[in-house]
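Data card: per-record layout.
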Amino acid sequence: MLLAACGRDLPKADLAALSAEARMMANGASDEFRTIARLRPLRIDVREDGVYLMMGGHLVEEWGFFIPHDGAFKPRAGGDPSFRQLGQGVWRYDVAGWADQGDRRPQAGQFDGFAAAVIADST
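The structure for this 123-residue chain is written out next.
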């Protein structure tokens, strides 16, 4: 079964691997992140609430995968970003404009080099 997310198909079997790799990354592991590398995220953002893998966006809109640190994560209803659970601790997130995020919005390019390094090291 494939889950269409972020304009790319994500095999359901990859959800557990994606979740595990993101958690290792958040804890500073230097392992290879093959599942994340295959997705080729535009940006990887490790924040206090979880790991964001930005897959695309335009102007102030953004979408990607989110792996929360807290397994009991419950998104705020009607919030921006919005979240949709895919399974195995992986969520799709969609940002309509970061209008209510204040200083939580990642800076452009903040993790671009890290994403490129993860992809280069895992290919």
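Known properties of this structure: Residues 1-7, 102-120 have pLDDT under 50 and may be disordered. Residues 52 and 74 are 16 Å apart (CA to CA).

See the next section for split statistics.
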